[in-house]
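Usage example:
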Amino acid sequence: MNFSEVFKQSNQLCKVSPDGKYLATCVQYRLVVRDINSLQIVHLYTCLDQVMHMEWSSDSLFILCAMYKRGLVQVWSLEQPDWHCKIDEGSIGLVSSRWSPDGRHILNTTEFNLRVTVWSLCTKAVSYIKYPKACQKGVDFSADGRYMALAERRECKDYISVFVCDDWHLLRHFESETQDLAGLEWSPNSCVLAVWDSCLEYKILLYSLDGRLLSLYSAYEWSLGIKSVAWSPSSQFLAVGSYDEKVRILNHITWKKITEFEHPATIINTKAVVFKEVEKRPTCLVSDEITQLPAQVPVIKPDPDRANPKIGISTLAFSADNRFLATKNDNMPQSLWVWDMQRLSLLAVLEQTAPVRCFVWDPRRPRLALCTGNTKVYLWSPAGCVSVNVPVEGSFQVQSLFWHCSGSSLVLLSKEHVCLCYLNSCFGGPNISHKHITFMSL
Amino acid sequence: MSPSRLYTASVMPPLPLSSFSVSSNFCTEENVSECILYINQELSSLCFPPIFQNSDNIRDLDAVVALNNIYDLLQLHRRAVGMMEEMEVEQLKSSSDLHYQHLTNSRLKDQLELSKKENMRLHERERQLETNLKSLQNCLKDTKEEVQRLQGIIASRATQYNHDIKRREREHNRVKERLNQLLIAKKENKQGMEVLNYVGRSDGRRCLWKTGKTESRHEGDMYKTLLNEFDNRQRELMVENIELKKVLQQMKREMVGVLNSKEMSQKKEKQSNDIDQSTLQTNSDEDELLKGHPEMSCDHAREKLTNSIRQQWRKLKHHVERLDSQASMVQDGDSEEVISKQLHEEEMERLKLEIQQCKEFIQTQQQLLQQQLNTPCDEETAAVLNDSYMLEEKERLKEEWKVFEEQRKNFEMERRNFTEAAIRLGHERKCFEDDRAMWLKHQFLNTTFADQMKPQSRMADEFSKLREKCLLCLKYGYFSHKNCIDLLQEAFIYPLEPCEACFIMEARTLFNVFWTVEQKHPPTALIQLRSARTIFYITQIGFV
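Running the assembly step on the lines above writes:
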């Protein structure tokens, strides 16, 4: 494992281009584009204000920099460094800005979610979409980039609009049966839209691409409901994490629950492996111990008087080959649970010494990288667990991380800095493209 | 004493007075003295003075004493009677008392029974009430917990609602402020985009106008995507379905096989055997039904398959349960398939012993091997031994090599000889061929074709003469007709039937064939023949 030198960044704005060739970082009001292999600065752009959001276009030719305070969006071109584009939202304000999947349109959400403006870089056309809903995830693009689903709220009712990204033509507009829509997400095969309600009601709705309601699933009433939702890469499973510390897996044929994963405080499953990070002397490389079962998982009871309590499954992530699911339960913040999707059982529990801040799967291999805010990076694969100290002078507290699209390197972000970690492919096994799991093998 | 006896005793009448008057059988004229004696004795036993004094055997009756005795006896009698009456009265009383006691006893016993039953009933009722009480207490506890849980839920929902409301209120306030700002503000910042130049689309195509056609195209694309997805899914499901069906059928077949093989050997299940035969029959029918159409998913066939599998599985389960119960009991003389526990254990013991022996054997072997490897502990001797072995082997190999070399040399020589001989042979052959050709040519040119139809005998004579002189015959022997044909084949011609022919050849090239029998050849052919270099004859008997 090699580590690169450290560069400055602000606002955790550091993104790798979709083609994997460049790394863009924002330092205050400057945008720095580096080549990923040599880390030499290729381009340097200056924006008008501190950049709050930065995004690559899908074809890696343009970068969008949004400055919310000034209501400005500036777009920079990699091919022509002197090309410039500035979108001024004026007095209407700017709350969020994103690219469309074709890389030629920018969607700006105005302040107070009054409307969504679609700016085109190819033509002079401007489109407006009224009444967008301000919720956890109100906009989602399908995986093939052809359709966009937008949540709307008119007259105290939720609606969903499906647009064709080609020409922003409204394909379908239908009422959603949610009380208060909290989020929507396309399935990876772009045929099913999962829509879920706010945490006051456990309700997840599945709509087909043409707006028909396929199914409604509600596990229980009254208690706080859904906290997180994730599709499996093959669209076979839909994992729903809720406030009752359970993950329920729905299957794509009947849309009924096939199993639920519990996160108990005492693990008695003998087939699972518990990796416990142990505080050893700071000079040696800390390796994780495998503890004997039954093992106890440290639990932190949440404050019952606060809204959005820190309990329940807040993050779910499927591995790229569909075989594993990683979950984090908020009242056991130091543990990360890995489930085997072929056997539908617990595979491993990673217990760290500090709350897990971020975990991401390798886009190519079944390999999980996580960080807890200390100077270490932890890697898990079915073969075992490894933790590496970031060898930087001064401490580099890893706040978040993400993988390079080829899976060969990790980008580590601390509060003010960014560092790259190059991995050898020996740890983690060969590339596996995501497979459709058949239960015949059970 | 039973009351009845006392009764009878008391019912016995008192001494009947009438009996005395008739009782003259005690004392008669004859036994007066005995009577007197007897009476005296009785009286003395009763402590009365004797009434008869016996002096000189004269019957002297003391009247006073007798009268006193009689009077005393009467008194006694009266007293006795009185006592008896009293006693009878008392007896009656006591018997009635007893009777009364008995009645009360039985009455009380009945009462006791009744009260016991009542007690039991009350106990029972108490128990029921207690269980009721417990269950109600549990209910109450559950309800309390439920209430608490719901209260907790309500509380969390309330906090969530409050949080939401506060958030919305804050946003509302911000909107109001903003609106105020906008109303007051003088300059209005216009929304707009400035760009250096417009960029082409990412896919390089021109932007299309929004028309009805594009809209319908979008619809079409959407439905196409959906349909593709459905198709894929259906295909996958069908494949899975077929696999599962196959597995089920195989399972069923195996189960039927297992069941039948088990039940064939048991005498008891003869009837069920028949039934199984019939089920087997039906199963085989189904198999045929389903074999022909494995993808058939009609409900009827599916139901039949699942039902039959359930049936078979149930039978198998019963059978296994029965075997289990049989195995748990130690039964002798049962069906042959069930091994009694003892035998089983003996078998186990024997096998264990065998395993132990084998292990020991292996260990000893290992040890010996180890020893063997270790015995040349003295390194020098080991080295020497090894060397000697090596030397022996080397020498052997050397000898063999020598033999091989000799043989090789011999082979080489022989080969050389053979090649020389072959070359020589080739030369000789060539010379011979030339000679033969010349000879034959001369021969042929000398003979004439004017009389083609000469009798065969003449030809035969000629041929016989030729035969002697034919170089070919001399050299290679006389050919049979078949060989001629073969040789002709080799010379690129195949005669249709055995006949006399003449052909012209030079080296390996065939120039012409003349069928001489029953053939008339034109003069040009004859000229050709005459001028030919090599001429051969085929006859029925040979090739010349």
